[in-house]
Design brief:
The structure holds two protein chains of two kinds. Chain A has a single domain, classed as MetI-like fold. Chain A contains twelve helices and no strands. In chain A, helix 9 runs antiparallel to helix 12. Chain A is globular. By secondary structure, chain B is an all-alpha fold. The radius of gyration of chain B is 24 Å and the shape is globular. The two termini of chain B are 46 Å apart. Classes of the chains: A mainly alpha, B mainly alpha. Chains A and B meet through helix 1, helix 3, helix 4, helix 5 and helix 6 of A and helix 1, helix 3, helix 4, helix 5 and helix 6 of B.
Chain lengths: 299, 279
Amino acid sequence: MFNLSEKARYNWFLVFLMGPATVLVLAVVAYPFFYNVFLSLSNANIYHIKDWRLIGLQQYLSVFREPLFWEILLKTVIWTAVNVIFHVGIGVFLAVVLNQKFIKLKPIWRVILIIPWALPQYIVALTWRGMFNYEYGAINLLLKYFGLSQTGVTWLTSPFEAFLAVIITNIWLGFPFMMVVALGGLQSIPAELYEAADVDGASAWRKFWAVTAPLLKPVMLPAITLGTVWTFNNINVVWLVSNSGEPNDQTHILVSYVYKAAFNMYRFGWAAAFSMVIFMILFTFNRLVLRKAQSNEVY
Amino acid sequence: MNPHTRRILSMIAAYGVLMLFAFIALYPLSQIITISLRPSDKLLSTSLAFIPEGASLKNYEKLLFETPYLRWLFNSLMVSVVVTFTGVALASTAGYAISRFKFRGRKAYMEGLLVTQMFPATMLLLPMYIMLINLKLINSYLGCIIIYSATALPFCIWQMKGYYDTIPVALEEAARIDGCTPWQTFYQVILPLAAPALVITALFSFMTAWNEYIVAAQVLQDVEMFTMPVGLKMFQGQMQTQWGLYAAGALLVSVPVVVLFLALSRYLISGLTLGSVKG
């Protein structure tokens, strides 16, 4: 130990720091990934769980031939876009309001508004499912109380309304994260910029687009990237609010559909191919769109 | 409109917005409280009252003494604590190495970690599930612990790396001149300075494990082995939902995490933004 050169000590220290994390990620993320590639080329299902064999690209063809795949892909894109737009819109809006000088008790408002993020996601989903109940759910009771609906909405039993219910739940869950990121970004904007804008007589609207928005952009973009990926793959909320795709598998996004194919229908090879397709969609999207938007801002 | 009226109007609008969203944020929580207090013959009620008629703590009593709730609590705590320690230990060291050592493949390593965030849950779960079946390791905590640690890790490493980047290198050079070994420099000088990021990493790892349903639902199969999410989901059964038990259980399990989360939310703001800006 004592005769090691500076260089060797440096390398050992690096291995010591990096080794454990790398081994764990390789074992649990990289290895299953390649396993999944093999599965996706195989005929594995409940009857062939140990003796599966490679059959080529058939499973992929079968995924693309499935008409439901394209329908669910469209739903997933809508789901992601609507959620992220509302998360960012509400989050930035609340952050700007909360950042006004005249607001008193800021920490208390902030704490209350973070609660949807603090609550465990599965509890939020299961609770909203109860609130969407046709007869006894709070949403319909409130709608009737305020006279917005005579009969109530069939939230969980009609395909469109059920999908809307899932989206509402997830919007509720996600805006605090964007609000917190935006609040952090707002703190780093120098007050002089707003004072200068005031001198020029700029309106609040104009100040937002000329000062706040451009300076928030570098802070928000990484959060939006991550938010997009997380929302696209968010199986928890969809699965629990719609009780695994009710009514009649009409409320799925890609990842919940493939979960059902794998664990309720045991189509392992097919589900593995489906997973690969989802991953490739996200990966390509990330390469093409987000990296381009990000590269000139963040790095 | 004179400036004074304008100011008053914008104040009213701002407080109005905050109150509306505060109501929206708190309402589902108030629903859980209300339902948990309902007596068993009034669970299905169309009343909007916050404190229900004939409120009682019967649901809590039944939950604690007649269901495996405490057992699930113990299971969840054990899994989450192990995942938290693993996450903090591995992310704080790996993040430091990536921040300070200019080794080859460093950028690719970081991007590789980002790519893992794009894996759909099933892509790792399905192979793991088949492997666990073949190894006869299904229905064990170890499976859950390993999966949670590994899925939380990439985000935690990014987070830690971003924070280390904001700590001046000059501090380490000073420590080295004073005769510290690399380990001492890291452990005694840099790590204490990264406390806010460590808190975020711990919180994130804990919440990942504490709130996970999808993996646990497949890996854990005995009622006795369930973690809290799988257990509570069981109350929303196939035939009939036991709303009282569910709400009481949901409230008891939420309160500690919400308090923890809110107490640490101060760190959350600095930690998250620094991590993401400097990424």
